[in-house]
Specification:
- The protein is 68% helix and 8% strand.
- By secondary structure, the protein is of the alpha+beta class.
- It has a domain at 31-316: Up-down Bundle (Outer membrane efflux proteins (OEP)).
- Helix 3 (38-57) packs antiparallel against helix 4 (101-169), helix 4 (101-169) runs antiparallel to helix 7 (236-257) and helix 7 runs antiparallel to helix 8 (295-361).
């Protein structure tokens, strides 16, 4: 073929070839999970609702229009007539309840505390979506790794079984070896089927968060662990209860301001037949005749709720500190176990397999011995994967349980 034609055909083949989906990274999975989290969307809507409510918190109540007829006769010749009697007056007016600047500031502060509480709930929902996605990602990744090991072992089992059958046919092997390898092959196939089911379930769990099937997953490196103060300060329960304290204190301030009653101003215009019209001005002042039994009780109730929120915050801070120390201890223990496991378990297993392979090639051992060595090495590698998965999930809990810094989720 002419070189130019060959180049053209190659380019066309590359353009028409189906695109291979790139492996999914953990960062991409986390972003997708937050974007499609309905819990986070609901929390954002709740925060928007609280923000809209806060805009009206410091406003004065709506004025009231008042209309009526005074001194309307109900008996005699002028019954229900508005014009004959000079005392009958048609009246229209407006009244306005007045809140002091201090009361409006207290209500505004309480409403803004509620906005802060709802905004934190949105960030908590986003943090939970990140954490659950990270855990599902790790489960799916390590399930796929374990399945690859078992698939390799299944391949070896088939090869060794066929080799044993060939040896039996050539009279250089025995039927006992074939039967043992047939049983071993069945065991490995069963293990592969079980791991395929686990890997499929793990992928479904991950798809629940990211909303798409993942053709492949990138490895996850060591996740940076926050400091104790960062972890505690970002713990969802601690942050939520801090906002609860703010809300409780704001409610207590509003209750305390209610000890001073609201005045209501009123202006009305009265019209009479044959006489001068009249304007009336008045003010209504509630009389708190027993503030110690009513208003002060309400304030004391709100202050008690603030004390309750502060106590719950202190308890949540202690719990978050204990969780951090426990998780860090588990992570260090798993790191030490992985290092020790590699040195004292994996390396001897690899050496055993190498020795069994060399012995088999020199006809000094059987296929069954070689298979047992290989199977033992795969079991060790699967155990190592389990330890690595547990460490990665502990690191993910440390990295993604705290609320991300910044204003957005």
């Amino acid at each position: 073929m002419h070189p130019a034609l060959f180049a053209t055909a190659l380019v066309a083949a590359l353009l028409t070839a189906p695109a291979v989906a790139a492996p999914l990274s953990l960062a991409t999975a986390l972003d997708r999970a937050v974007q499609r989290s309905e819990a986070a969307r609901a929390a954002r809507a709740s925060a928007l609702s609280a923000s809209e409510t806060a805009q009206a918190a410091a406003q004065l109540p709506d004025p009231t229009v008042r209309a009526g007829i005074d001194n309307l006769p109900v008996t005699g010749a002028d019954r229900l007539r508005t014009t004959p009697d000079s005392m009958t007056m048609k009246r229209i007016g407006i009244s306005q309840e007045w809140l002091s600047r201090e009361k409006r500031d207290a209500r505004r502060a309480a409403a803004e505390a509620m906005v802060g509480k709802e905004s934190v709930q949105a960030r908590i929902a986003a943090a939970d979506a990140r954490l659950q996605t990270a855990l599902a990602y790790l489960d799916a990744f390590y399930a796929a790794q374990a399945l690859q090991l078992t698939a390799l072992m299944e391949h070896h089992a088939h090869e060794e079984y066929e080799a044993a059958r060939a040896r039996l046919a050539s009279a250089t092997g025995g039927s006992d070896e074939v039967l043992k390898l047939a049983a071993a092959r069945g065991i490995v196939e069963d293990e592969s089927a079980e791991l395929r089911q686990q890997e499929s379930a793990a992928r479904v769990a991950l798809e629940r968060w990211i909303g798409m099937p993942a053709s492949g997953l990138d490895p996850v490196g060591n996740l940076p662990a926050p400091s104790e103060s960062e972890y505690v300060a970002g713990d969802p329960m601690v942050v939520a209860l801090q906002r609860e304290v703010d809300v409780a204190r704001g409610a207590a301030a509003v209750a305390a301001s209610n000890r001073r009653p609201n005045w209501t101003w009123e202006v009305s215009y009265g019209q009479r037949t044959g006489y001068s019209d009249m304007v009336s001005v008045g003010v209504s002042i509630p009389l708190p005749i027993a503030p110690a039994a009513r208003q002060d009780r309400e304030t004391a109730s709100r202050l008690a709720l603030a004390v309750k929120a502060e106590a719950e915050l202190a308890e949540a801070t202690r719990a978050a500190t204990a969780d951090y120390l426990s998780a860090m201890s588990d992570a260090r223990r798993l790191e030490a176990r992985i290092q020790r496991y590699r040195e004292v378990v994996l390396v001897p297993a690899e050496q055993r397999t190498a020795a069994a392979t060399a012995a088999y090639r020199s006809n000094q051992t059987t296929l069954v011995t070689l298979f047992e060595a290989r199977h033992a090495e795969v079991d060790v590698q699967r155990k190592l994967l389990t330890l690595q998965r547990d460490l990665a999930k502990r690191q993910a809990q440390l990295a993604y349980r705290p609320i991300a810094s910044g204003g957005g989720p």
